[in-house]
Amino acid sequence: MEKIIPTTGEWRKFYVAASKFRQIECWNWMNVDDLFCVRDPATGELNYCCVLGESGTIFGIAAYPGAEGFHSYLRIQFNEGIEMRDAGIQQKCLFLSFEDREYLTKFDNDLAKKMLYKGKGSHAWPQFRSYIPAYLPDYPDSRQVVLMTHILEQAIDVALRFRDDRSLFPSDGWDSLLARIPVKAGGGLEWRDEIIEPDIMDKSLFDDIHIDELRLAKLKREYKKSRAVWEIEYFLGPGAIVEKGKRGYYPYLLMCVEAETGYVIALWLATPETYQDEFPHRLMDFIEKAGEIPSRILTSREETQDMLNPVAEKLNVPIDFTQELNGIRAAADSMFEYFEEHGSVDSDPREMDLWEDYGSEIRDIMSAGSKDQDPSKDTSKNSDGFPEDVGEIYEQPGGSKIPGEVAGQTPLPVFLGLTPREMGSLINIPFDEQYSPFTLNPVLDGKSIRELKLFNDIVIYLGKLGEIESLPLTKMGNLPRKFCREMKTLGVGGDDPWIEMKKVFNEKDFYGLHLINNLTRLSGLTRKERGKIMLTRRGKNQLKALPASICELYTLVVKTYATRYNWSYEDNYPVAGIIQRSVWFTIRLLQQYGSLERDTAFYGDLFLRAFPSVREEFPMNYYHSTEEYFRDCYTYRVFSRFLHDTGLIKTREIGDKYRKRVRVEKTRLADELVIWKRPLPSPDPIRNSLGD
Q1: 3-state class of 32 per DSSP?
Q2: What's the whole-model pTM score?
Q3: How far apart are CA 508 and CA 308, in angstroms?
Q4: CA dist 59 → 24, 97, 122, 126, 166 (Å)
Q5: What residues contact residue 89 under an 8 Å CB cut-off, 6+ apart?
Q6: Does residue 387 surpass a pLDDT of 80?
Q7: 567-592: pLDDT as tens digits
Q8: What DSSP state is assigned to residue 637?
Q9: Angle value at C-alpha 417, between 412 and 423, nearest 5 degrees
């Protein structure tokens, strides 16, 4: 469809509205979670709007059109299946930001001059872009400029009323939203409030995909089902493809990796227009290339499951969700690092060259062309803190490099006597019977497990689901409010003092219950089906076998918590996946030194000795050093969350709230849970720098 260039009058009204919106600075009392809607007078489509600026970095407003736009908003909010490098170009929205003048493109600068716009101070100059998933950002057309003008006017009205009356929004969640609805009156528009339910994306488009039944029958006949587990996921390529006269786009890459070995079976490229039709057929290509049918597929997106299901269901291959696709992540990171080194990775999409000259008509408004000339130069890398192949080369803390055969099989003091090969297995294939340096003890102290709050809460939660048989979820797929409050009354997940200070409106308000819901689902104890959650056969059997199954259930939850639940999704620290993937090494440190109560900083220092390159993920800033930043993250994720929740440590906090320190001591379970195939060495005379 041909783009209609905005007129001078349309731009002028937009700039007037943008100036008024900038002046009220509503980001001082609104944040990205305060969602409201504005209906497009021209099409009737709802636009889901949020104000940005609370973080002090990006100031403006984003409007997500329709069900697809709302879905992209939610995915970014919860980081569900989206790598952060993809987030900016995986959204469908109209985005108005206020920038410093030196960061404006020539188009924005010339347009502001033509409109006689006078910005004062920092973050004062409008920059308006249109985003479609996988495409480069575009200049807005006439309809989008008019729509954003309406949105800004209604955002001003909503923001000022919300400042004075927080009850203007119907709930703290997104099950119902305030919407501004236009009504024609007297030759113009009048706007009124209405409470609406958000649109849900229609997934029926995958039901119509044509599958070659003869080819499927041939696959069943010629290939046996193996024990292999595959990770399959799609993501955007490292650089945009730009053809003359067309809007640039990022290709979708579908990757298939063998979960146990990390071997990349295949990588397939598709355009944004074709990937949904192509990817179901690619699963058959992967099977033919591998020469086997997998026993199970792991993925992190519902969309991926929907695309692969037409083939997977007919081959009787289950698709499970996991937050940690370690094989995919490692392969994708290696690919992106390669392209970064060769200068082929695009950075912030808001600063890229746009795909097309804006057209000859724009010269009636401005005196210069419109193409952005400020591509980003950022080539920062995202290391996982561990050498790519520890069996071939290991870089010692001092910087010297040891040839692979020696380094791969020589015990190292920084690894507490483990070899680099063993450490590589511990991180990448921790439960491989042949290569992993440890096993989990099937016989544990039942008394200690029964005293754990997390374990007891899980038993109560499973028991309640067993009584209900199937629990209807909200439209957002969350546990219903009534059930959440009932769980709170029973004391489930109630360790968090913040819960006691506010009402529970939804599952996301209740971290303890949210954790239990995810752990039981990822462990295969519960499942979601047709908008309901229920116990699986495994969950029923585990519950029925208690107390005899107490050790088995505990070990299952610990393994899931350690390897499948994403520790980084609910905090604001860098991803730093090596912290979670090497948690068994932290337990080794705890077994070695945990008889005495020590500061968590002690273990953090030992971890940095073993994985010095993790520092790259924790840049120094005005508030803390690299080491302090890392220690805070390490303490929170490993000790305050995982080890505390699973009963492997006893903790004690000392100091005030500004200089709080956490001291830990191992429990009996910590010594029992992990059994090393080679015993721990004698403790070296290392001392805690914080006074131990």
Answers
A1: coil
A2: 0.50
A3: 29
A4: 12, 6, 10, 10, 21
A5: 131, 133, 134, 135, 136, 137, 236, 250, 349
A6: no
A7: 876 677 888 888 998 999 999 999 99
A8: I
A9: 75
